[in-house]
Amino acid sequence: LELEQRLHQAVRTGEFQLHYQPIVALASGQPQMLEALIRWQHPDLGAVRPDEFIPMAEQTGLIHELGRWVLREACQRARDHHLTVTVNVSPIQLNAPDFVEDVRTALRQADLEPTRLKLEITEGAVIRNLQQARRMLQRLTRLGVQVALDDFGTGYSSLASLRTLPLDTVKIDRAFVRDLERAPAQQATVRAIIALAHALQLTVVAEGVETEGQRALLREMGCDCAQGYLLARPALLEELAL
Ligand code: G
Ligand code: G
Ligand code: G
Ligand code: MN
Ligand code: NA
């Protein structure tokens, strides 16, 4: 409970930071955009992982306030540094009626072109209620922002069943990338995801790229972009060599 109370204060006391991780085009090696990843520096406990505090923020409803802070911060940084940013969106946020207004407000306050913001939605959030998700994503894309399907492959949905969603990008979950060099079956799966995504005119990002072998294979498979420790670790914007 103490951690939970602390979480409530932490937005105001400035204990959150955004780290950014480049998403790099495989053909050119050029960074295309940055994924914003939240970090909490607790005064006593030190770094608390998002895996621990995001679920807590979701259960307590704080995710809405936290999400607004992430959007505001990421949009301002994108504007100031002429970048495109991607922001992770919790299923709880996606289902909130006010979420579209939160996005609109963040864009307006930062004076950021909507095309400079991409929202990452997990496959799980979408397949739980496809109809509602479609309506929400349509409202968001009408603002001009783009939408990426995050952690793809973990939710056991087929891309074909998602073809009616206004998506721009599919991010292949790092579990598929991890075994790419060892498991031929995994290679076939990734090839199939890329082929289907391209048939649906989606950009494909591979997550968790850690080795040269993985990068080479993904490039050969026609994957558009890669993200992972091989290319750059998440870091403060000031620390990234862009
Ligand atoms: O960066 P890291 O591996 O620690 O992220 C762990 C998890 O936290 C990932 O699933 C990531 O999507 C999620 N996450 C990181 N930043 C945010 C954020 O700003 N909002 C939400 N909802 N999730 C985030
Ligand atoms: O230079 P670039 O194409 O990245 O700029 C695109 C966006 O950045 C446009 O929305 C433009 O209005 C905005 N912009 C251009 N110059 C500046 C500047 O000096 N500061 C800030 N904050 N935004 C700028
Ligand atoms: O769920 P989401 O895909 O948003 O989570 C991204 C998470 O992946 C972040 O916590 C980020 O720190 C982590 N990450 C980024 N690159 C790598 C990588 O190359 N390997 C591993 N294991 N994790 C990574
Ligand atoms: Mn993500
Ligand atoms: Na992911």
From TrEMBL:
<feature type="domain" description="EAL">
    <location>
        <begin position="1"/>
        <end position="242"/>
    </location>
</feature>
<protein>
    <submittedName>
        <fullName>Uncharacterized protein</fullName>
    </submittedName>
</protein>
